[in-house]
Amino acid sequence: MPSLKLKAPAKVNYLLDVIRRRPDGYHELRMIMQRVNLCDDITIAVTESSGITVTCGQKGVPDGPGNIAWKAARILLDLSGTGRGAAIEITKNIPVAAGLGGGSSDAATVLMGMNQLLELGLSDQRLMEIGVTLGADVPFFIFKKTALAEGIGEELLPMPEMPKAWILLVNPGLHVSTAWVYRTLQLTNERVLSIFPEFFGTVEDICSMLSNDLESVTIPAFPVIAEIKRRIMHLGAAGAMMSGSGPTVFGVFHSRDQAEIACRDISAGTEWFAAVAETL
Length: 280
Ligand code: ATP
Hints:
Blueprint: E1 3-21, E2 27-47, E3 52-55, H1 68-80, E4 85-91, H2 102-117, H3 124-132, H4 138-143, E5 147-150, E6 155-158, E7 166-171, H5 178-184, H6 203-207, E8 211-212, H7 215-221, H8 224-234, E9 239-242, E10 249-253, H9 256-267, E11 273-278
Parallel strand pairs: 1-8, 3-4
Antiparallel strand pairs: 1-2, 2-4, 2-5, 5-6, 7-10, 7-11, 9-10
Helix pairs in contact: 1-2, 2-3
């Protein structure tokens, strides 16, 4: 039974501008997205018998057909026309519903893995077209580069090379509904797009573009997010921002040591999830 063990990385948004609400209810966005090496572990095996099993065993994440990884496997098995199946095991290390893109990354990883196992020979471009039918962030994880993402997040351009940075991720474990955040966001007609540098020589250049329109909704409702940002900055980060629709906050650090000291400090006496990751 051919099988693969793969890593599905998380992402943070260095920048997230909401440009307008489209008539179909989606939002037109402009984002800068960065992968980080906090990863889910995924094992995929192609089986001779038809049917797909997804085992995850994580609270808040469905096993079976409700899992986005199941849907990704279904599409590629149908395209293969072989009548075979798949057994997928996911170990979630990325916090769930946290603004870190974990589900989208799992789906992208299963698309790429099944393409290889089934020897379908689909291009990344084709996999990205399939991916966007599963979720707006899925193509980014197939693109595999720091990206400027437009449209609903699926129109991707590579960003100029950026210096390596250490990212402290802190999730206070609140439930924040992405749909509620977008519904509540007040959009103005005179939208001024955030600016970002053309050249990134230092971690400070990265931090100069940190901006997230969704903080205007999430922070007033969950002030602990602002408190985490303050604490991360106080612990020596060059910048701190909420990722996606939250509630995870990330801090950008120059060195692993600095980030790990901050991680230990922030974890002490709280139930918050905190981890240090490197930019990919
Ligand atoms: P984004 O940053 O793209 O908005 P997120 O990090 O906020 O995503 P996810 O962790 O992807 O959110 O989870 C969103 C929802 O998707 C969860 O409530 C969960 O029930 C469901 N889900 C389905 N499959 C998965 C999966 N493989 N991993 C995580 N969540 C999944």
